[in-house]
Amino acid sequence: CNRKLPRLATRAFTTTARQMKNRVPEHQKLFQADNGLPVHIKGGTTDVVLYRITMTITLAGTGYSLFWLLCACQPTCK
């Protein structure tokens, strides 16, 4: 029973590795292209949306933190 487990594990990993296509050269061409875009939005619409969501959450969190710091400095903040 113990000898079957490593054989099954290696078989599972080698099967998926053979089916995967190497897309690294495609991604290198995409991200190294000189099109004037920053690298964090070169991936397309999904990257732009994720970037904007991240920046919105970051700015909202910073503003919220600054608001509560201001409230902590005031003697009567509700």
From TrEMBL:
Q: Name one GO biological process term.
A: mitochondrial respirasome assembly
Q: Quote the cellular component terms of the Gene Ontology held in the record.
A: mitochondrial inner membrane; respiratory chain complex IV
A Pfam family cross-referenced in the UniProt record is: COX7a
UniProt subcellular location: Mitochondrion inner membrane
Q: Does the keyword RNA-binding apply?
A: no
> What's in the keyword line of the UniProt record?
Membrane, Mitochondrion, Mitochondrion inner membrane, Oxidoreductase, Transit peptide, Transmembrane, Transmembrane helix
Query: What family does the database annotate?
Result: Belongs to the cytochrome c oxidase VIIa family.
Q: What is this protein called?
A: Cytochrome c oxidase subunit 7A1, mitochondrial
Q: Which organism is it from?
A: Esox lucius (Northern pike)
